[in-house]
Design goal:
α1 crosses α9 and α6 packs across α7. The protein has a five-stranded parallel beta sheet, sandwiched between helices. The longest helix has 28 residues. About 55% of the residues lie in helices and about 10% in strands. The protein is globular and about 50 Å long. The chain is α/β, with parallel strands linked by helices.
Length: about 200
Amino acid sequence: MTEPLIIGLTGPTGSGKSTVAQSLEEAGCVVIDADKIAREVVAPGAPALKELQREFGDTILDDYGNLRRHTLANLAFSSLEKTKRLNEITHPHILRKMKENIEECRQKRKKVVVLDAPLLFEAGLEHICTVTLAVLAPREQRLQRVMARDSITREEAEKRMSAQQQDQYYKDRSDYVLVNQETSGALYYQTRRLLQRLREEHNV
């Protein structure tokens, strides 16, 4: 069975990673969204949610056992140590689910699979990828996007961004880097051009 080309897509919050994922999906790639899977593994009653409750307290749950995401985010992103604990709890569950999805794509003979994962390297997902791609953008540009996207204050956005890796971290670990400092159209063009190059190099 022919192995699919697996592209590990990552980057800090507000960089434009979602735009790249959308462009790849529109070009025929299967996109596995780690954030979506992360939401699934913390559904009411799920083992990961119970672990988070033990670590961060009962305030992260509402009266119906649903996760209060904003509350968890404020607690988990208040320090690098707490962010690390969040990742240590959720990553194994996310990794297992992603591997299941990849196997399903393999069985269906999909040619290009994209792992859209903000914490690609922290979770060790790069080891199951053929190539890795990071999307970066100027800090102020990212800050404005995060504030608008999540309807949060500048202070909250700064806190979230500070809990993440710096640009150099991604540059040092990624096979390819796209810098998003122009328009979404320009980023689309960069993405499609890179995809064509990868298809040719890997014969898919």
